[in-house]
Amino acid sequence: MTHGKKITIAGNWKSNKSEQDVLDWFKQTSFLVKESEIDFSQLEIVVFVPFLYLSIAKKIIGDFNLPFSIGAQSISPYPSGAYTGEITGEMITQYAKYVLIGHSERRKFFGETDDILQKKVEESLKNRLEPLYCIQNEETIIPKEVEFVAYEPIWAIGSGTADSPENADKVAEAIKRKWGVKRVLYGGSVTPQNVASFIDMPSLDGVLPGKISLDAQLFMELIQNASQA
Ligand code: PGA
């Protein structure tokens, strides 16, 4: 790796996988990590798993000694208490390092507004969780406490058509300047084939693949290609 910057590859499983699928995925990934010659010292690999699997993900990563961090895909905007059905920062922090906030699917299907997202950022930080805040374009408002952002244009998510690395880099550069954000990932149809073109961009610090991260083989291929970019 020649960039001298730390690269983050963050897989977002979304609402997928049975417990058996999770066990198989980690078993396969662990085998591939051991087989590979990847230098993980300049890489941070994060897996955003459904809440239900945070605990087993932590246990397996520990048991297999995998160089992976864990992320949650959401967080309650409220602290622990009488909020039936919610998963709070206090719970998540036992297992995860990161929390995904503001994904366009949360905004679209669950009505999450800028106000709610602001509260989620505050709950994350109160519980020593680092928010990975998703923005859809340059105009998306970013809470001032946020240092880590993923730029994910809605039209590129799950469509098979990624944004151009040049445009993603332009957006990353602009939001770093405007909001003082420190790290920016690109997400939206990232594949093992196109990952290097994003990693090569000066203002991008990694990628957030969704669909590809569900498949252990493809996810490892993507990591391998990113490590050689
Ligand atoms: P995709 O999803 O890689 O399947 O396009 C990215 C995301 O929504 O985080």
Write the layout of secondary structure elements.
Blueprint: E1 7-12, H1 19-35, E2 43-49, H2 54-64, E3 68-72, H3 89-92, E4 98-101, H4 104-109, H5 114-126, E5 130-135, E6 148-151, H6 165-179, E7 183-186, H7 195-199, E8 206-207, H8 216-227
Helix pairs in contact: 1-2, 1-8
The structure holds 2-phosphoglycolic acid.
Helix content: 25-40%
The major beta sheet can be summarized as: 8 strands, parallel
**Which ions and ligands are bound to the chains?**
2-phosphoglycolic acid
Q: How far apart are the termini?
A: 6 Å
Indicate the proportion of strand residues. Answer: 15-25%
Strand order of the largest sheet: 7-6-5-4-3-2-1-8
Outline: globular
User: What is the total tally of β strands?
Assistant: 8
Using only C-alpha atoms, the radius of gyration works out to 17 Å
**Parts with pLDDT < 50 across at least 5 consecutive residues:** none
Number of helices: 8
What's the pLDDT, averaged over the residues?
96
The secondary-structure element order is EHEHEHEHHEEHEHEH
Find the structural class using helix and strand composition: alpha/beta
Description:
With 229 residues, the chain is an alpha/beta fold. The protein has eight helices and eight strands, in the order E-H-E-H-E-H-E-H-H-E-E-H-E-H-E-H. The chain has helices at 19-35, 54-64, 89-92, 104-109, 114-126, 165-179, 195-199, 216-227; strands spanning 7-12, 43-49, 68-72, 98-101, 130-135, 148-151, 183-186, 206-207. An eight-stranded parallel sheet has the order 7-6-5-4-3-2-1-8. Strand 2, helix 2 and strand 3 (68-72) form a beta-alpha-beta unit. The protein is globular, with a radius of gyration of 17 Å. The N and C termini lie close together (6 Å). The site of 2-phosphoglycolic acid has 12 residues, from loops. Residues 12, 152, 157-158, 187-190, 208-211 line the site of 2-phosphoglycolic acid.
